């Protein structure tokens, strides 16, 4: 990634938009951008606080909110019934993995009848999510709630559950991202997901880069809200995503 950044800087770009592979690389990118006097816009992966000095603007979502939304959906769906839950984790140590899981547990801490009995890394991957879920459900047949840090692992979880003979009514499964694949599974094993607007993050990061290149003052943080998506909302959210992507393509044509 650093080689790509150097190539962009050598090409005399007016601004940089970067989605880092992880938080640790932001400082190295930022130092190169600062030396070249090129404004750096970071999207999705939130930099460590001490590295924000190298960043002109950050565009993303407050990851803890998505985890809270998942757990609140579970609480409302259970309506006071006890439950045993498992959590599928993204790559350990990433901001999204840490904060989404923290959000899950923050809400569940208020409801002692819900116990998290297992959590395991599945690296954002569907196949890994399926493997981990199959193992955990085999060891804990009384699990009836599965929370996943993203949709791909959630899809893996529901496929594993079906393979083991679980019915849709036996499990509540929730993901994050509202990917097209996840939307197709809503109401068919996936009970809810949380929409993270990649199109809005892209649009706003392009806007911040454009303004920064012109020397305009821009906000240090730009928060894009998450939205809970349930089966009854599937069609509306699909239309919304398509319209935002269309608007984004037209917006980018203007730059």
UniProtKB/TrEMBL annotation:
Keywords: Signal, Sugar transport, Transport. GO terms for biological process: transmembrane transport. One of its GO terms (cellular component) is cell envelope. Residues 3-217 form the Periplasmic binding protein domain. Its main location: other. Signal peptide: none annotated. This is ABC-type sugar transporter substrate-binding protein. The gene is rbsB. It comes from Rodentibacter pneumotropicus. Belongs to the bacterial solute-binding protein 2 family. It is found in: Cell envelope. PANTHER family: D-ALLOSE-BINDING PERIPLASMIC PROTEIN-RELATED. One of its GO terms (molecular function) is carbohydrate binding. Gene3D superfamilies: 3.40.50.2300. The keyword Secreted does not apply.
């Amino acid at each position: 990634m650093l080689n790509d950044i150097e190539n962009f800087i050598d090409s005399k770009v007016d601004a940089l938009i970067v989605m880092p592979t992880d938080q640790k690389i932001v400082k190295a990118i930022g130092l190169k951008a600062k030396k070249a006097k090129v404004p750096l816009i970071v999207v999705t992966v939130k930099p460590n606080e001490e590295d924000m000095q190298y960043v002109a603007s950050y565009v993303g979502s407050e990851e803890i909110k998505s985890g809270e939304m998942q757990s609140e959906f579970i609480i409302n769906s259970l309506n006071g019934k006890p439950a045993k839950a498992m959590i599928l984790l993204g790559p350990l140590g990433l901001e999204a993995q840490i904060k989404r899981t923290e959000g899950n547990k923050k809400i569940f801490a208020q409801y002692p009848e819900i116990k998290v009995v297992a959590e395991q890394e599945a690296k954002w991957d569907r196949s890994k999510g399926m493997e981990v879920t199959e193992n955990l459900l085999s060891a804990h047949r009384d699990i009836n709630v599965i929370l996943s840090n993203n949709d791909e692992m959630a899809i893996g979880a529901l496929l594993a559950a079906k393979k083991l003979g679980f019915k849709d009514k036996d499990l509540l499964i929730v993901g994050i991202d509202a990917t097209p694949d996840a939307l197709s599974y809503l109401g068919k094993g996936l009970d809810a997901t949380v929409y993270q607007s990649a199109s809005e993050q892209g649009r706003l990061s392009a806007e911040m880069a454009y303004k920064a290149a012109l020397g305009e003052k821009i906000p240090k943080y730009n928060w894009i809200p998450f939205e809970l998506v349930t089966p009854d909302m599937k069609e509306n959210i699909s239309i919304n995503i398509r319209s935002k992507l269309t608007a984004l393509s037209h917006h980018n044509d203007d730059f």
